[in-house]
Design goal:
The chain is mostly beta strands and about 600 residues long. Among the domains are: about 35-145, Dex49a from penicillium minioluteum complex, domain 1, CATH 2.60.350.10; about 240-375, no CATH class; about 460-590, Jelly Rolls, CATH 2.60.120. Helices cover about 5% and strands about 50% of the residues. The chain contains two helices and 51 strands. It has a 19-stranded mixed sheet that branches. Strands 13-16-19-22-25-27-29-31-33-35-38 form an eleven-stranded parallel sheet. A hairpin with a 7-residue loop joins β42 (about 475) and β43 (about 485-490).
């Protein structure tokens, strides 16, 4: 055989070997690993369900303190892609895996089994319901790999733990770490403390101790009051009682809060899942809430601002004796002490919210009055098909000034828009009723004297200044700016940054600009639209410097309003001779102004009175 032929066969063999090796490595990377947790001592086992993860049994226990049918629970840690098999105590016809929007499909290896795969812990907090029966449900929680307890942490190992009087009060700089299988029987509270952490995949069983240190109307399972720098991660919170009027997790007048992969379970009346009020700076991710009332409450005890929530599952377990108001609830005034006798909401952004078996999806009906809501946005909201009982919206709480809500990419399983009382303004941007786009205010089907605006594509368009035309300033790397860059050094007269934008309809648009100003004094720069001067924009100083932290950057909502033509427009920020100092520019957002205008044509309707 010639060298040429030998070379051909060797090359073929090597190519095959490389392809096989790469395929094998990729398969190995995709293959998952799992860690099942020890059975949680002191909790009751559940005989209705059995669960295997990668062929290893994962203990199933019964959530204590449930007012109606007990719920089965199992949890484990995993990486990659794992196979999960669930067995019910008897044969069944079908199963629902919720949220259905996660797209988890199953097979039936046996008449009483279902099998499926998980590959992302963020989409692994699920409800498995057998034969559409709420009395046959399993809560299954897939966690990320268990972390190592940090140095100095109070570590609770697997087993049952009972602090004195079933009460635990945290102190400054305290970290609690719950190892897999740990069960901490205690109501947890803290007041006027800093640097607090509760971590780990263990279980907290709250008690009705009769103690009310947070001075609110309700006692709560776990409360953080007038504290700072709080991190909560990975644990499950349940209770050993089913009394009414006791909320689950309350974070009140507490700033700089991070919550990730926390699960709360109760079906008692008024057992609100997560309650936020009087906070500045809250980041919630991957939250699972079972509540006999509101699953998420925002906005009491003062001003609540800078709240971001992503991937929130809200489940309302219907049974006699409870009457839920809303999955997301904008709360009115509840406190009476100075600083708590007002209730307002600044910037709140909720994305990827999954509402299952809700009465109303978004509401505000309780409290003395709601003072102000500036910028409340809900994006990518899904209701479980056929599970909502009443409305998308229900707002009848008295308000003292206009309230603004933005709904974007909402998929609602009914056609009842709901009710808005006076001074409530809601913008619809790609809202669907039963799969059909709400195209106008009539189709929104909202009653009351509030106002609805149907935008469908015109709100919140985002433009990075560094991607525009620059004359003088530079596109500089900035650690805390969006996408890591911003326009800087716009010092000389005539220097500018100009972005080209596109809007679908002509009209007045509100400009929001994100910037940093570490000069120590308020800055002012000129705004031009399509080459024509419009106004001088103000950029107040940012106290955290130019780029030292995320708080160095500030978004000015409503820096000004400009009239834009349909199609392409150019917006320029320029330093003129009468402008003061300078600001680094991050991005521009434009939103159609919500005003009452009569329009006979066009796809975008103005604010009109709800029918």
């Amino acid at each position: 055989m010639t060298w040429a032929k030998n070379r051909f066969y060797w090359m073929f063999f090597l190519s095959f070997l490389v392809a096989f090796t790469v395929g094998y490595v990729r398969h190995a990377e995709a293959a998952g690993t799992s860690t099942v947790y020890p059975f949680p001592a002191s909790l009751a086992s559940n005989s209705d369900f059995q669960v295997w993860v990668e062929n290893t049994s994962s203990p199933v226990w019964t959530a204590p303190g449930m007012a109606a049918t007990p719920k089965a629970v199992t949890s484990f840690a995993f990486t990659g892609t794992v196979t999960v098999k669930v067995q019910y105590k008897s044969n069944f016809t079908s199963a629902n895996i919720m949220p259905s929007q996660y797209g988890i499909t199953y097979t039936k290896p046996a008449a009483n089994q279902l099998q499926f795969t998980l590959n992302d812990y963020k989409k692994s907090k699920i409800i498995i319901q057998i034969d559409n029966d709420p009395n046959k449900e399993l809560f299954l929680f897939g966690d990320p790999p268990v972390a190592t307890p940090p140095a100095g942490a109070t570590v609770y190992q697997a087993g049952a733990h009972y602090p004195a009087n079933n009460e635990l009060t945290m102190q400054d700089n305290q970290t609690i770490f719950l190892m897999p299988g740990a069960v901490l029987h205690a109501r947890i509270d803290t007041a006027n403390n800093s640097n607090l952490k509760i971590l780990g995949p263990g279980i907290i069983v709250a008690y009705d101790t009769g103690v009310n240190p947070n001075e609110s109307e309700f006692e709560n399972n776990m409360v953080f009051y007038k504290s700072n720098n709080v991190e909560l991660r990975d644990f499950i919170l349940v209770r050993n009682f089913n009394d009414n009027l006791i909320h689950q997790l309350v974070v009140r007048n507490t700033d700089n809060v991070s919550i990730d992969n926390v699960k709360v379970i109760s079906d008692a009346r008024c057992s609100d899942g997560l309650s936020l009020g009087g906070n500045n700076g809250v980041d919630v991710k991957n939250f699972f809430s079972v509540s006999g009332d509101n699953n998420l409450v925002i906005g009491w005890w003062g001003k609540t601002d800078n709240v971001t929530i992503d991937n929130y599952i809200a489940y309302f377990p219907e049974h006699a004796g409870i009457a839920q108001t809303s999955a997301i609830f904008a709360q009115g005034i509840e406190g009476t002490k100075p600083g708590e006798d007002t209730s307002s909401i600044g910037t709140v952004r909720i994305s990827n919210f999954y509402a299952i078996k809700q009465t109303n999806v978004l509401g505000s009906i309780w409290g003395k009055i709601q003072d102000n809501i500036d910028n409340f946005t809900i994006e990518n909201l899904y209701t479980e098909p056929g599970s909502t009982r009443d409305n998308l919206l229900y707002f009848d709480l008295n308000v003292s000034s206009n309230k603004n809500f933005n709904l974007k990419n909402v998929y609602f399983d009914k056609t009842t828009g709901g009710y808005l009382s006076d001074k409530y303004y809601v913008r619809f941007d790609n809202v669907y009723y039963k799969g059909n786009l709400v195209a106008n205010t009539s189709a929104a089907n909202v009653t009351g004297s509030g106002k609805v605006q149907v935008l469908n594509g015109t709100s919140g368009k985002h433009y990075e200044f560094e991607n525009g035309q620059l004359n003088g300033p530079i596109a500089a790397n900035k650690n805390y700016a969006s996408f890591g860059k911003a326009v800087a050094v716009m010092n000389s007269v005539g220097s500018f940054a100009e972005v080209t934008i596109d809007v679908p309809v002509a009209g007045d648009y509100i400009l929001d600009i994100a910037y940093a100003n570490g000069s120590g004094a308020d800055a002012a720069q000129s705004v031009y639209v399509n080459g024509i001067y419009k106004f001088q924009a103000s950029f107040p100083k940012t106290n955290a410097g130019w780029d030292q932290s995320a708080s160095s950057w500030k978004k000015v909502s409503g820096v000004g309003t400009v009239n834009l033509q349909a199609g392409t427009n150019k917006i320029k920020i320029q330093k003129d001779s009468n402008d003061l100092y300078t600001a680094d520019l991050d991005y521009l957002e434009v939103t159609l102004k919500p005003i009452h205008v009569e329009m006979e044509t066009g796809t975008v309707e103005p604010l009109v009175e709800a029918r």
